[in-house]
């Protein structure tokens, strides 16, 4: 199988070109459609795509789109968000051909801010672990990772400048790392989840993919209406805590080296870097994530389990069956542990601006049967903090390695700025 060209589109560059009149929104749609025609058969990133209607919308509202926050850029939406004008299947045969009556709140935000929904991107079934058919653009024999596989792969392959995903364990940051693009999981509840198929209401978080940190920050700022852009001035040197955590030995040697190299390069560029040791409550919180997620998933997917159990993916069906015995007392205890850990994290981060840690155990695993492991993401999802995959490094085989910047809850712009600082340090002559 031939290896496709990996050439992400810069959302920020395209937006500036649209604003300057160098390209029209319809012209950007054409770039994406050409890439889809060339690469989609091999990558398989889309559950549905509508180029004709998208181009017609781009041509019908040139002036409005050009002046809008998203400048008429095409956007891909993970197929667990409802869309009124496209099928929404949640990655499951149970909902094949399903047409929701309304758009999810975040889809409406895309449209209101001048984004053009070009297609629905592939998700694993109900955003769990039964893998879809999407392939990694860097090597189609490897997984793109996570349930937001289609969104990450579409951006990496240059088929979209912006895509939306979700993270319950690690399905924004990890596929971003595997596919070599920027991935941003905002602080919990910054982006609405109304109209998105729920797996765990305490954890499910919408996130974004784009080529680089400035691109994903631009898209997030446009969607959220918040001051999140980091492209207008040089980023300040952050105080970075190198957090190896109790599962550090689970990271591959290449990943451990990548995180430590990123720390050295950031320090050489002017950042303050120090090792941090997480209190023991974080090990308890790491385990608490599963109790919270699984107790809620049994209830969120009660209809599908009770009425269509034989049509669930084997991993999901077995997981829901096993999780049905989690008692409410264990769930409540896990929530109390999470609360204590969040307080401990707030105390810890009075001394640093961000934490630096692996985005994944290593590069994307070979084979499409597994989406990889979320062990380096679950804790931070539970904490509700902003998390950003910083691309720019590769292992000896040429597969991407991502490092994760974890910020303070509600301090998303500072986390994005620190991620940009690390990204630039990796791209500096010292990091080349």
Total DSSP E strands: 11
- Reading the helices and strands in chain order gives HHEHHEHEHEHEEHEHEHHHHEHEEH
CATH topology of the domain at 11-224: Amidase signature (AS) enzymes
Mean pLDDT: 96
- The CATH H-level homologous superfamily of the domain at 11-224: Amidase signature (AS) domain
Number of helices: 15
Round the Cα radius of gyration to an integer and report it: 20 Å
CATH level 1 class label of the domain at 11-224:
Alpha Beta
Q: Quaternary state, please? A: single chain
Note the beta-strand portion.
5-15%
The class by helix and strand makeup works out as alpha/beta
Order of strands across the widest beta sheet?
1-3-2-4-6-5-10-11-9-7-8
The amount of helix comes to 40-55%
Any overview of this molecule?
This protein has 432 residues and is α/β, with parallel strands linked by helices. It has a domain at 11-224: Amidase signature (AS) enzymes, CATH 3.90.1300.10. It has helices at residues 11-20, 25-43, 51-60, 62-66, 105-112, 149-156, 173-179, 213-224, 253-268, 281-300, 302-307, 314-323, 328-348, 378-383, 412-427; strands at 46-49, 74-78, 116-121, 162-167, 182-185, 205-210, 239-243, 272-276, 354-358, 387-394, 400-406. An eleven-stranded mixed beta sheet has the order 1-3-2-4-6-5-10-11-9-7-8, with helices on both faces. A hairpin with a 5-residue loop joins β10 and β11. The radius of gyration is 20 Å and the shape is globular.
């Amino acid at each position: 199988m031939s290896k496709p060209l990996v050439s992400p589109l810069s959302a920020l560059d395209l937006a500036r070109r649209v604003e300057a009149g160098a390209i029209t929104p319809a012209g950007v749609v054409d770039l994406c459609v050409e890439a889809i025609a060339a690469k989609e058969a091999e990558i398989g990133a889309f559950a549905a795509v509508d180029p004709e209607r998208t181009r017609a919308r781009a041509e019908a509202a040139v002036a409005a789109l050009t002046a809008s926050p998203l400048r008429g850029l095409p956007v891909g939406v993970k197929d667990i968000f409802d869309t009124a004008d496209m099928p929404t299947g949640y990655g499951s045969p149970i909902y094949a051909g399903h047409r929701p009556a309304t758009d999810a709140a975040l889809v409406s935000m895309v449209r209101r801010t001048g984004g053009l929904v070009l297609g629905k991107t592939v998700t694993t079934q109900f955003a769990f672990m039964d893998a879809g058919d999407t392939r990694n653009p860097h090597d189609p024999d490897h997984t793109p990772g996570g349930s937001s596989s289609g969104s990450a792969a579409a951006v990496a392959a240059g088929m979209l400048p912006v895509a939306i995903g979700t993270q319950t364990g690690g399905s924004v940051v990890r596929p971003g790392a595997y596919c070599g693009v920027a991935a941003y999981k905002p602080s919990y509840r910054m982006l609405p989840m109304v109209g998105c198929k729920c797996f765990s209401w305490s954890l499910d978080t919408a996130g974004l993919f784009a080529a680089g940190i400035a691109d994903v920050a631009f898209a997030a700022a446009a969607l959220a209406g918040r001051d999140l852009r980091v492209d207008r001035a040089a980023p300040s040197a952050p105080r970075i805590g190198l957090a190896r955590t109790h599962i550090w030995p689970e990271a591959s040697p290449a990943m451990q080296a990548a995180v430590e190299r990123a720390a050295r390069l950031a320090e050489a560029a002017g950042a303050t870097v120090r090792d941090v040791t997480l209190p023991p409550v974080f090990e308890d919180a790491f385990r608490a994530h599963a109790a919270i997620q699984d107790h809620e998933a049994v209830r969120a997917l009660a209809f599908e389990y009770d009425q269509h159990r034989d049509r669930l993916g084997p991993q999901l069906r077995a997981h829901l069956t096993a999780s049905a015995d989690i008692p409410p007392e264990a769930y409540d205890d896990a929530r109390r542990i999470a609360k204590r850990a969040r307080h401990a994290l707030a105390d810890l981060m009075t001394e640093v601006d961000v934490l630096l840690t692996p985005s994944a155990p290593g590069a994307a695993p070979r084979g499409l049967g597994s989406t990889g492991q979320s062990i380096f993401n679950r804790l931070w999802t539970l904490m509700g903090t902003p998390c950003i995959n910083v691309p720019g490094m590769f292992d000896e085989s040429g597969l991407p390695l991502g490092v994760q910047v974890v910020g303070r809850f509600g301090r998303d712009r500072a986390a994005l700025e620190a991620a940009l600082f690390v990204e630039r340090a990796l791209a500096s002559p010292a990091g080349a």
